[in-house]
Each structure stands twice: as structure tokens, then as C-alpha cells.
Amino acid sequence: MAIKKLDSIFRPKRIALIGVSSNPDSVGGITLRNLVGGGFNGVVYPVNPKREAVFGIPCYPDVKSLPKVPDLAVIMTAAKFVPQLVRECGEVGIHGLIIMSAGFKESGEEGKVLEAQVKAEKAKFPDMRVIGPNCLGILVPGLNMNVSFADGMPKKGHVAFISQSGALCTSVLDWAYESNVGFSNFVSIGNSMDVSFGDLIDYFGQDPNTKSIVLYVESIQNARTFMSAARAFSREKPIIVYKSGRFPESAAAAASHTGAMASEDSIYDAVFHRAGLARVFDFGNIFDFTDLVGRRRIPKGNRLAIVTNAGGPGVMATDSLISLGGKLVKLSDETMQKLNDYLPPFWSHGNPIDVLGDATPERFAKSTEIVLEDENVDAVLVLLTPQAMTDPTATADAIAKMAGNTTKTIMAAWLGGASMREGTQIFNNAGIASYGTPEQAIKAFMTLSDYSQNLKMLYETPKEVPVSFQYDRNELRKKYLENVFPKAKILNEDDSKMLVNDYGIDTTHPTPAATEDEAVAIAEKKGYPVVLKIYSPDITHKSDVGGVALNIENEDMVRATFRNMVKTAAEKRPDARIDGVTVQKMVNTKGGIELIVGTKKDPIFGTVMLVGMGGTTAELFKDKRLEFPPLNEQLARQMLESLKIYPLLSGWRGDAPKNIDKLIEVLIRMSYLAADYPEIEELDINPLIVTEEDVIALDARIVVDEEIMKQPAKEYSHLVLRPYPESLIKNCTLKDGTEITLRPIKPEDEPMWLELLASCSKEAIYHRFRYDFYFDSHEVASQFCFIDYDREIAIVAEHEKEDGSKELIGVGRLIADPDLETMEYAILITDKWQKKELGYTLTNYCMEIANVRGIKKLMAETTKDNKPMISVFRKLNFKIRFNEDTTVSVNKEITENL
């Protein structure tokens, strides 16, 4: 398996260094010295046809001459030799490569050609994995293995650091030595020709020595792999990311407001948010936040208390906290009483807790201990400034000793110079994150608390929003692909609104008019007042050319507006084809809020959705939120609640709230539209008017992706997340005649899933989980109902009861390995529905799904006393093995005939 093959790189027993030289200051010389002198407990083979020995170690002319096949080969020759060397490594069976050589795509067109040659050679050996080219190498402190040209070795720790920048790696290592922070793995991936961020997240996500992952990202290439891997592990292991290149100097011209507003960085921000990652925006915060996470003291929430011996730093920390959206925790009455009893009468009597300038080490430590005992407090920041009576070192020692009695987060900021260094070192050794300023500490803390909140929001159970469609979506799609999309790259307003309306989003209906007389006739038929808009396939932003006129109330106004609008548009856009105007009924939007809703197809992350403040000022204020389809109720609600304009939607200063439920439905319908049409490059609804009663699209514009029209895309390849697999919904009948529906689970099923488990006996639960499984909590249920359909499928059996309500009576779950080659299968049937062949029906259907997905092998495990399920496995020709304990292991090659 591809991910497992990474063991050849990170757990090698034999390493070949190809191109190593006797120059101690060369890349090869430093790497050899790091390995041999660093305590690596394996075999190192220097390879260089021009050397008999390097540093007294015998040298081999090529990899074919090596006495044993190495697990890992490190290439550090000139770039032009690399393709040939990759082929030679593959031919002798080397599974792991690190290419340190530079001179590939980062160097220009010739380098890109050379890198393509390397890829072509690598492709001949599917079992080979490659890090690089143009990388610093890797360090695995737990194995004393420094396969890089970076000096020194950081201490063993629990943070995996992955960077596209080799220069940044050396800076981080320097900081790590000084701060005494350790790493489980340290990786420079360079150009990421093969091994990507997603691969490494999958690998380190399964590594028991890695508790958190830090990423330095310049660009992401395989977006779907990255998103899938990050979502799989971000819940269990914090993943921190710094994205460089946030503000590129130029961007491609956009044909819509959505295209202009959905910048590259805002899309990356949406990716990190949806994946549950913690993002830091300042370069220095990488170190601060890595320090905090590396100490393994993760706060459960964002409730902060500050203990200080001076008012000024406390105010600085408070200002920083509030400016970043945080709040000081209100201490409980019990805590206040304890502090009043212990501290001198002139303490601050609130948070920040000012223990006064004459505070002894004992007063600092005891006050901090009292505050940490408060159930309202998630974390404490201890601030110390040097004063005449202050003993920074002894105070740090007292805090460090006290910290051993709590699991809550403690941060420290010892403000000053040389007199603070010893205390700071005490914190580093004790696993307490320390900072030079209060602001640094607050930024790190807020990033961590934002991350925690992000995860919480990511797994909030959505409400069920019934969404039905007036037309068959497949037939609808056929109509637009054959008759509408071929008309023009930018569809006219009428065609654009027609598609939006077909997806259940109310629109005004414009009718084209080529002459004044036609415009008058249409206006009188629709009824005054009306709206006139310029009708041109070449003009996207109509207002910019005077192409929108509202409240036209009679024939004379129609004629005058028609003439002026066509004339003005022709003068401002002489290159544009103008076909007249469109006429539509004027909608009463009094009290309505203007929003923009749209989609844009990003070349890396596929289709992204946007909602924000709309109208002509949409791009000016840029009050927006991006997300990736598909959406559910909770995601759509989060998008709206994150907007600055949201208070106007929810009811501001006595105004009636707008129809937010209908607006959420509109966003969900838009996500269906986005998922169904990879042929849409950009889509704008601007403005979308939201009133107390309704949500109406007043204008719409669709830009067609002509390349996709020529070469149809694979289903859902334009989405970074696999949508709910509707195609897997199947109706069937059990042997007793009961009709059931088999379908994939969804987040909205959480209440029914909990009822399902509650109706099972302890024996049934034990057969499924093989321990006394405690399921009755949202945290547990979300792990089983919020799934990534790319690598996990849970098929529920749904039954409609006599009263019309529905219940889940069984569930079969398939979980794939990261390489999508094997799947682990588990099944649970409620006691009431056993012995009705539901187990056979569910298992057989799950096998069909695995076969369609290209899975090679299914595996499952149960207990010896689970005879009904063992019987099902026998019927379906699984291989069954009874283990020495009470378990039974079964497996089946899916390539067999089903």
C-alpha cells in the first residue's frame, strides 16, 4: 500500500546516499556526517563511482553493486542525472527515495521538463514513493536519523513538521534547539512531485508518536487527497497550517462579482476551515503556536484568566485578547472568595488577577492554582515583569512545580532581558509554553481556541431541510447541456435565471425586447412598475454602463429609458453587442436585504460557493464567506452567521427578522446546482433579496466552462468533497415482505442513530464493538454520522413505521485504508429485526459498493458466539478464521464473483 510504503522513508534499516562527496561542507558530506555521527542505528551505503571511500567508509559505484537492497535511497547529484538514477533505484527494488537535488520546476521551463522525466521514470515503479525533489530531507529524532543537510538534531517530541520551504526548516530547527521543543518527524517536501501533504497527514495521523501536525504551505496540488486526509485526522490530532503567498500581485480577470471576491487566499482559508485546521497568519506565530501545541496542553475552550504582578501587561494582554475576538473569563464567586482570603487587600479584585508588584513566588503559584481550580477557566496566562522584589527564576520554578497538578493550559510571558532567560528555560523544560510578550501568548492561545471552536462547529448536527425538485435533475441537465450552454460563454440573464429557477430558487422573469414598441407591450402585459436592463451577452456588470433602471411606471418612461439605456451602453462599451433590453416586473423589496450568492470554479480546489453582502458595493465591502459544496443546514447557517451583515438578517434594532430558513434552503439548493454542473465556471445571483417572507433572485449570470463542454469531466471531479452519494439509495424487500430503504448515513441521522443503538441489547453492542461501547453523546455519535464519503461508507437500513415516522433498524459500515485498497466492515442490527435476512441484505449490498469503488479486499472481525453473522459470512463466501481468543476474523477478495 502506498501509505505503508512510506515506512521505507521514515523507518529504513538501510540507506544509500547517491552522489555523496568527500567535501565535508557539501550536501552529501553533511548528510553522511549527520547519519553516521548522529547515532543512526542502521546501515549507510555511500554511492559514488568516482570514489573508493568517503570519510573512510567504503563507496559503491552504483545501487546495483550494493550488498543488500536499501529501503531508502537519497539522491544528491546534479539534476540531469536524476531520471537515470530513479530508474536504477526502481530496477533494484528500492521503495523509498529522497531527491535533494535542485534544478527542477522551481528553476524554469527546462527544469519542468526534467521533473516530468523523473515522474515518468517513477511511474514505472508503482511501489516507489518519492520525497522532493529540491528538498532539505527528513529528520526522525526518535531514531536518531538525520537524513538532511541541516545541522544538529532536535529532541524527540510529538509534533510532525512538514514544510515546502527548506530555508524555513532550518529556522524552525534553530528555534527548536533553543526552545527545547521536540518533533516526532521533520520533513522538507520540496516540489512534492510524489509524496504530498495529504499522504503525510495520512501517515503521521496513524503514527502513535505524533500528537499534532504543523504545515508550512506554499501551494496544494492534490486538493481532494489533502482535504480527505485532513478531515480524517484533524479531530484527533491538531493540524496547524501557515500559508505563504497570501496576496499574489496579479489575478486572472473575473467575469462575475463572485469570481472577483473569491480570491486565492480566501479559498485556502475556506479549505482550512472546512478541514478543521488551525491557521496562523503571522510567520512568528508558527513558532508560538507550535510551542503551545507541542507542550500537549490543549484548552477545552477559550475562557482565559490572566495572573500578573503589574497592571500594564495585564491591560496589554486584555486588549490583545479582545481585539482578536476573545473574552476574559468571569471568575466564580467561590474563586473570588478564595483570592480575597489569600491575596493582600489591594489586589485587582477581578480578571486580570493583579497579585501586586511585591508578589513572592509562592503568591504567584498559589494564585494561579486557585484560578485553575475554577471550572469556568480553560487556561491561564501568567505574566511577570521585573521589579525590585521580583525573583523571576524562583517564580518560574514555583509555577512549573504547581503545573504538574493540573491538565489545564498554562502559558507564561516573562517580560525582560537576561534576568528572564533562566526562568524561561525552566518553563521550556517543564512543558509550559513561554513567550516574550503578552501579545504573542494571546495570539497563540486564540489560534488554538479558534481551532477548537472550528472543530466543534464542523461536527454540529444539522437539521433536516427537505429539498425537492420540480424536475428530474438528470433530464434538466440534459436540456441545459444540449440547448442552453452551447449558446454562449456568458449566458444571458433569461437563461441564467431559468436554471436558477428550475432549482427551486425564486426569480424575477425578464423578457427580451429588441425595440421600444416591444418593450412597451411587454411592460403593459406584466403590469407597471417594471425594471429595464440592458440585454447584451458581452456586458456582465450592467450598472457600470447605466444598464439598470427601476420603477418604470408608464409607457413614456419605458420609451425614454429604452433609448437612453441603449445609447449609453453603446457609448461606454462600443465593443459590446447590444440586443435591446429586458423587461421584468418590479418586485417590492422594501425592508429587504441584498445578498450575493454565487459559485466559482477554482483550478485547484474545484467549485467553491460564496455568500455575502450584495448589490453594487459587494466587491467594495467584501463581507463574504466561502464554503465548498455540498452544504447541509448547519454549514449554510454558519456561512450566514459569520457575515457582518448577519444582524440585519436576524433583526436589527426592532426590525423584523428576515426569512433565514428560506435563505438556508436557497443556499442548499445552490450547492445541489453547483454539484450537478461542472460545466459552470462562474455563477452570480446578485442581488438576492431577502425579506421577512421570501427570498428572490433579482439578477443572475452564468459563465460556461467551454473546455469542460468539449471534454466532459468525471462525475464530481470538480468538487473537493464527495457529495452525499444519492446513487446508493436503494429500496428492497425483506423475506417477510417488509419494505426498507438502504442508503448512506448522513449527519442529520444522528438522533435516529442514537435511537438505533439504544434499542440494541448489550450482546448486540458487544458483538459490533467488542467492548461496552458508550454511545450516548454527540461527540461519539458525530464520529459515526459525519463521514468522508471518499474513504468511508455507512449504509443504514431505514424502515417507515405505521405512524409514518422513520427508524433505523441496521447499519453496515465500510472503512477504507488511506490507499483505498482494503476496507474494514462492521455491521449492527437491532434485536427486533434480527433473523429477517437483514444482515445478509446489508452485507451483500456493502460488498457491491466496495466492488464498484475498486476495493480489493474486505475484512471483518466478530466474536465466536455471534453465530448469525458468522452464518451470513459463510453464505457470502468469506474466508473464516477462528482465533485462539474469542474473536473470529473473516475476509474476502472483492475481485471474486459476487
From TrEMBL:
<dbReference type="InterPro" id="IPR043938">
    <property type="entry name" value="Ligase_CoA_dom"/>
</dbReference>
<dbReference type="InterPro" id="IPR051538">
    <property type="entry name" value="Acyl-CoA_Synth/Transferase"/>
</dbReference>
<feature type="domain" description="N-acetyltransferase">
    <location>
        <begin position="740"/>
        <end position="895"/>
    </location>
</feature>
<protein>
    <submittedName>
        <fullName>GNAT family N-acetyltransferase</fullName>
    </submittedName>
</protein>
<dbReference type="Pfam" id="PF13380">
    <property type="entry name" value="CoA_binding_2"/>
</dbReference>
<dbReference type="InterPro" id="IPR011761">
    <property type="entry name" value="ATP-grasp"/>
</dbReference>
<keyword id="KW-0808">Transferase</keyword>
<dbReference type="GO" id="GO:0016747">
    <property type="term" value="F:acyltransferase activity, transferring groups other than amino-acyl groups"/>
</dbReference>
<dbReference type="GO" id="GO:0043758">
    <property type="term" value="F:acetate-CoA ligase (ADP-forming) activity"/>
</dbReference>
<dbReference type="Pfam" id="PF19045">
    <property type="entry name" value="Ligase_CoA_2"/>
</dbReference>
<dbReference type="InterPro" id="IPR036291">
    <property type="entry name" value="NAD(P)-bd_dom_sf"/>
</dbReference>
<feature type="domain" description="ATP-grasp">
    <location>
        <begin position="497"/>
        <end position="533"/>
    </location>
</feature>
<dbReference type="InterPro" id="IPR000182">
    <property type="entry name" value="GNAT_dom"/>
</dbReference>
<dbReference type="InterPro" id="IPR016102">
    <property type="entry name" value="Succinyl-CoA_synth-like"/>
</dbReference>
<dbReference type="Pfam" id="PF00583">
    <property type="entry name" value="Acetyltransf_1"/>
</dbReference>
<keyword id="KW-0436">Ligase</keyword>
<dbReference type="InterPro" id="IPR013815">
    <property type="entry name" value="ATP_grasp_subdomain_1"/>
</dbReference>
<comment type="similarity">
    <text>In the N-terminal section; belongs to the acetate CoA ligase alpha subunit family.</text>
</comment>
<dbReference type="GO" id="GO:0046872">
    <property type="term" value="F:metal ion binding"/>
</dbReference>
<keyword id="KW-0547">Nucleotide-binding</keyword>
<dbReference type="Pfam" id="PF13607">
    <property type="entry name" value="Succ_CoA_lig"/>
</dbReference>
<dbReference type="InterPro" id="IPR016181">
    <property type="entry name" value="Acyl_CoA_acyltransferase"/>
</dbReference>
<dbReference type="InterPro" id="IPR032875">
    <property type="entry name" value="Succ_CoA_lig_flav_dom"/>
</dbReference>
<dbReference type="Pfam" id="PF13549">
    <property type="entry name" value="ATP-grasp_5"/>
</dbReference>
<dbReference type="InterPro" id="IPR003781">
    <property type="entry name" value="CoA-bd"/>
</dbReference>
<dbReference type="GO" id="GO:0005524">
    <property type="term" value="F:ATP binding"/>
</dbReference>
<keyword id="KW-0067">ATP-binding</keyword>
